User: Which sequence fits this backbone?
C-alpha cells in the first residue's frame, strides 16, 4: 500500500507512515549540507540504461567533497523545487549542463549552488559498486562523449524494436 500524501496506513499489523518525496529529498539535502552521506532509491527513467528505476539505489556524497567534473552523476534541485539525478555533460564557470543517460536534451545552465550532491556508488544486485573505479568511470566518460549521437542511437534502437516486434506478431 502506498500513500504519497504523507499519511499513516497499516501493513501487517504495523502502523507505517509515508513521506512525500519532496520532503524526503529536502531532508537528504540537509544531511548532505551537514557533510553526511545518504542513499536514495532510483525512481525515474531518465538515467536508464545506467540506473534502473525501482531496482537500483545511489549513494550520495556532499558536493563540497569534490569538484564538479563532466561525467559525474549528481542530484540537483530545479528552480521548481523538483530533485533530479542527471549526468554532468559540461561545466562552464559557475554552471553545469546536465542530461539523463536516457535523454538527448541538454538541461542548463544550472547554477552550481543547485547541485546538492554527487553519486559515488550504485547499489545493484546486492552489492555497492563504486562509480569512481575504472569500469564506472570509463562508462561515464564514454557515455558523456556519446551525447551528440544519442538521438541517432535511441532512434535506431526504437526502429529495431519495432521491426523485431513486427516479425513476432
Assistant:
Amino acid at each position: 500500500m502506498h500513500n504519497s500524501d504523507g499519511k499513516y496506513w497499516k501493513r501487517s499489523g504495523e502502523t507505517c507512515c509515508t513521506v512525500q518525496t519532496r520532503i524526503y529529498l529536502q531532508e537528504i539535502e540537509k544531511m548532505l549540507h551537514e557533510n553526511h552521506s545518504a542513499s536514495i532509491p532510483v525512481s525515474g527513467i531518465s538515467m536508464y540504461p545506467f540506473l534502473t528505476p525501482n531496482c537500483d539505489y545511489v549513494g550520495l556524497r556532499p558536493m563540497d567533497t569534490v569538484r564538479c567534473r563532466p561525467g559525474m552523476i549528481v542530484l540537483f534541485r530545479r528552480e521548481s523545487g523538483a530533485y533530479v539525478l542527471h549526468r554532468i555533460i559540461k561545466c562552464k564557470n559557475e554552471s553545469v549542463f546536465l542530461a539523463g543517460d536516457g535523454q538527448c536534451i541538454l538541461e542548463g545552465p544550472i547554477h552550481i549552488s543547485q547541485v546538492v550532491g554527487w553519486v559515488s556508488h550504485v547499489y545493484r544486485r546486492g552489492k555497492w559498486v563504486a562509480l569512481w573505479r575504472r569500469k564506472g568511470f570509463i562508462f561515464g566518460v564514454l557515455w558523456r562523449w556519446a551525447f551528440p549521437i544519442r538521438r541517432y542511437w535511441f532512434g535506431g534502437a526504437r526502429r529495431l524494436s519495432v521491426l523485431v516486434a513486427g516479425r513476432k506478431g
Observations:
- The helical segments are 21-33, 134-145, 150-168.
- The two ends are 36 Å apart (CA to CA).
- Residues 1-6 have pLDDT under 50 and may be disordered.
